[in-house]
Amino acid sequence: MHAHLAACAAVLGTVCLLAGGCRATIGGALVAASDEPAKIPADPRAPSAPRTLPVEVQFVRHDPRDAAFGADLWRHVDEQALDADLRRRLAANGLRAGVITGRLPTDVAARLEPPATPDPAVPEDAGLRRLLRLLPGKRAEVVAATGLAELVLLEHGAEGVVGATYRDATAQFALEARPDVDGRVRVRIVPELRHGDVRRSWVGEEGMFRLETGQERRSFDDLGMSARLPAGGMLVVGAGETAGAAVGDALLRDRSPGGGVRLLVIRALAATTDPIFSDPAGSVPGDGT
After folding, report:
1. What is the edge-to-edge ordering of all strands in the sheet holding 234-239?
2. Is the C-alpha dihedral spanning 93, 98, 81, 184 positive or negative?
3. How do residues 189-237 score in pLDDT, each as one tens digit?
4. Are 233 and 268 in contact (CB under 8 A)?
5. DSSP, res 131
6. pTM for this prediction
7. How far apart are CA 89 and CA 157, in angstroms?
8. What distance in Å separates the CA atoms of residue 179 and residue 52, rounded to the nearest whole number?
């Protein structure tokens, strides 16, 4: 009797495996029969997945008549780290930018540090700073100004000056960071405006569509700034010397009469390496996240 039952069980198991998709318990583990080839275990020596990149973003508000701060700071900014054509486009649109990689004089560096004791006469966001942990190549948004009910903007481009009025606008920068081969971080920022009514739209991303709710976005791609920063290196973006209706004014100059200007400082906080070029053990210098 027992032999007969064992034979029936063996035949039934053979039929299940041939049919595919049946499940059987082996040694207490549930497995599924499938036509798919067996998966090869991952090589433990392969590079690890990209880690987050720690980046500090800071806005420093100051008086536009503070010539000493502007002159002292920009004397240590390498504006030639950016392409000459880009520098001309930035200047025409009320922006200037460059890279700081060396040590700053104590008095200049102190101006980039938040005060130990807040001054009631100074706005709370005068030295606003945020620590961001960015996924490589993933977009983040750095908001510079909100609540712009009506923004008149003159954009200087290859075809001349183009004027437009944006309502219910938010001025911001799109920020991306990627690890570089030599331990530096590649940072790219692009000035943007969000404006108009809030709408719902389908957005394609990585082969999929997702429903996104938000305002219309205007990106000034020709004013995008890229830099390769070592740990502690900074990308600095400021407004032009003359106030107007340019892109830089919308982003970094207060609209109130006699208002201040802001300096955007993006600082790489750790050395990192593109996983493609990491060591065989897969260790990637970085923040350990």
Report:
1. 95-100, 234-239, 261-268, 53-62, 129-134
2. negative
3. 999 999 998 877 776 766 777 777 788 999 999 999 999 999 999 999 9
4. yes
5. E
6. 0.71
7. 7
8. 9
